[in-house]
Amino acid sequence: MIVALALLGGCGSSGGIGSGSGSAARSTSTSTSTTTATSTSAARSTSTSATTTVTTTIPGVPVDMLNPAVTPATIETTICVSGYTTTIRPPVSFTEPLKVHQIVTYGYADHLVRDYEEDHVIALEIGGAAASAVNLFPEPHTFSVPDDTLENSLHTQVCTGRLALADAQRQMLAAKVAHGYSRAASAA
After folding, report:
1. Is residue 167 within 8 Å of 30, Cβ to Cβ?
2. Beta-ladder partners of 138
3. Which of 24, 81, 145, 170 would suit a FRET pair with 17, their CA atoms being 20 to 30 Å apart?
4. Domain ranges of the chain
5. Residue 172: beta bridge partners?
6. How far apart are CA 53 and CA 33, in angstroms?
7. Nearest-angstrom CA–CA distance, 72 and 70
8. Over residues 83-104, mean pLDDT
9. Residue 59 CA from chain centroid, whole number
């Protein structure tokens, strides 16, 4: 699976992924196998495009999309604890106005709020940042159910040691990009 992250620096005029030309895009190849990746938390890289600088601790996943309390060393006391996400989930008073705003910035023709789920790009159950606008996305319901299934699967694989946390986060970002996630639109 290839994750095209041209969206890190924004999109072209159509707002679509990969519609920009000459952007400082970074592609990260990820495997769908359950092999454990080497530790990437110590490696730091920076992607720069135009006036946007995004620092990552996991290649391909911007740090502001991640919960700093969740690391491979802390998963047993954070995401792998039943009920953990209910302790960090942002209130509807935060997510609902953001969803209304993002539906407009994404340029969706359908402005009915009920047709979207304000979903975390990197799911809370795999270490996503709870209240970061760039980690929230007004996802059409046609994609939200399959993504929930993927989130649950990745969470189970991480908590049973069959998949590295960073690999799960990259796979989730790839799925959201495929469903129309745009960092520029989420941050606007």
Report:
1. yes
2. 118
3. 145
4. 2-187
5. none
6. 31
7. 7
8. 96
9. 13
